[in-house]
Specification:
Length: 465
């Protein structure tokens, strides 16, 4: 294929990638966005194969590629069909990691294959080794923490951690400079990757479950930057553009997540996200017999003449797979004349957009989902707020206690509503590890139950009332 045709194909693929990302910004255009992105990837693959003259290499070259497609596609399809929505954050972490790992191996193979590597290639290869290694092993740690396999979900710290991180960073840069100065020392590339691997682990273990949305967004950005670096290694424009889009969008999302959690991006980048919890009231002091438990029948009486209901989903909704039951509850309340909306906190759940995905799976109309800044001013005029499995994102301590570990974190101000119904299995704290005064507030009723069971019980009680 002529080089000009190949470049035009790459350009068309890049435009489709941009249109795909644009389409993914809204659920109504998300399907078209996916199709644009998939079509762009198909064009990019065809152009790349043509550039490498794979189509002229006979059945052997094509056979190897088809074998890889079948094996990888089979694994991907199996995981997509079997993965539970509660495990989607782990899945995203793995996908980020595989992207970084692929960049590491592709760049390493290109360096070994090159006879006279250019400075651009060696510098990009070093960038791939560092960023890709951090991404792959950091993502594995994130997956392990979320899945609860070996490492604890809470932050892990040790004395001199930041100093060790600094030494590893200096060591990786030193080895990288040596590779650029003498590309024939290809064995140093794997030393570089090993240092990046240790760095990825050490940068991720301090991250606790509450901060995983930030970590996942950041690792997603890293995987894009690794891909862009690989594009410079291979001199592939489509890969450079695609990786840059992913890297930039991931950094923007990371910044949004940091703002939503009142975190510093600098702390995220150095693996020091979670502040230490010092002092603060104990659970006995906060609750002290003031918690009011209610039955589904008692809660159902609240909906006799309500005009406005807001449902706040949290990770407990994902754990109990309550999204379909909650949708049915919302539909029932609407059939009785109530206005029902869903208040979505940016970091509810364990990954960005977790609640949006769950509710979309249950066919909840997108225009019923309200962002935090839009819905907060309306809580004072809301008759009933139903909080399902959320904790830290509705904890009023964020606004009242400057010494709290979540001080300054923007929250859903549900405590301003006339009545708040909190559905939780217990009074256990959220990821921040602090009690929630909302549970003991005068206008709060606690419905102790599994999220799905509680929604189904409420539906039955409302119908019988």
């Amino acid at each position: 294929m002529d080089s000009s045709v190949i470049n035009l194909t790459y350009l068309a693929a890049s435009v489709l990638f941009i249109l795909g990302i644009k389409g993914l910004t809204h659920p109504r255009t998300a399907v078209h966005g996916n199709l644009y992105g998939a079509t762009g990837m198909l064009l990019a693959i065809i152009a790349t194969l043509a550039t490498r003259d794979v189509f002229g290499s006979g059945l052997q070259g094509i056979g190897v590629i088809l074998t890889g497609i079948v094996i990888g596609g089979g694994i991907g399809a199996t995981l997509a069909l079997k993965i539970q929505m509660t495990a989607m954050p782990q899945m995203v972490a793995l996908l980020n990691g595989f992207g970084g790992g692929a960049s590491v191996f592709v760049a390493g193979a290109a360096l070994l294959d090159a006879t006279e590597p250019t400075t651009q290639m060696t510098v990009a290869t070093v960038a791939c080794g560092i960023i890709g290694g951090i991404t792959f092993f950091g993502s594995l740690v994130a997956f392990d923490k979320l899945q609860g396999l070996v490492l604890p979900g809470k932050p892990m710290h040790f004395p001199g951690q930041q100093f060790v991180n600094l030494l590893i960073g200096i060591g990786a840069l030193t080895v990288g400079v040596m590779i650029v100065n003498n590309p024939t020392m290809t064995h140093l590339y794997w030393v570089l990757v090993a240092l990046a691997a240790v760095g990825g682990v050490l940068l991720t273990i301090p991250i606790g479950g509450a901060d995983m949305p930030v970590a996942i967004a950041l690792l997603n950005s890293y995987s894009g930057l690794a891909a862009a670096s690989t594009g410079f290694v291979l001199d592939n424009n489509a890969l450079i553009i695609t990786g840059s889009l992913v890297g930039a969008s991931g950094l923007i999302l990371t910044r949004v997540m940091c703002k939503a959690m009142n975190r510093s991006l600098t702390n995220v980048l150095t693996g020091a996200i979670v502040p230490k919890v010092e002092g603060g009231a104990s659970a006995d002091e906060v609750y002290a017999g003031r918690v009011k438990s209610a039955s589904p029948e008692e809660v159902a009486m609240l909906f006799d003449s309500v005009r406005r209901v807001v449902i706040v989903p949290g990770y407990g909704l994902a754990v109990s797979q309550a999204q379909h039951a909650v949708r049915d509850l919302a539909n029932l309340l609407e059939s009785q004349g109530a206005e029902v909306e869903f208040a979505i906190h940016p970091v509810a759940g364990r990954m960005p957009g977790h609640m949006n995905v769950l509710l979309a799976e249950a066919d909840v109309a997108y225009d019923k989902l309200r962002e935090m800044d839009d819905v907060n001013p309306t809580f004072a005029e809301t008759d009933v707020v139903i909080v399902i499995g959320a904790n830290d994102v509705v904890n009023p301590v964020a606004n009242t206690d400057p010494a709290s570990p979540i001080a300054g974190m923007p929250i859903l101000e549900v405590d301003k509503a006339r009545t708040v119904v909190v559905i939780k299995r217990s009074l256990s704290p959220g990821f921040a590890g602090i009690p929630n005064p909302l549970f003991a507030a005068e206008n709060t009723l606690m419905l102790f139950s599994d999220g799905k069971k509680a929604a189904l019980d409420l539906i039955s009680a409302i119908k019988e009332a």
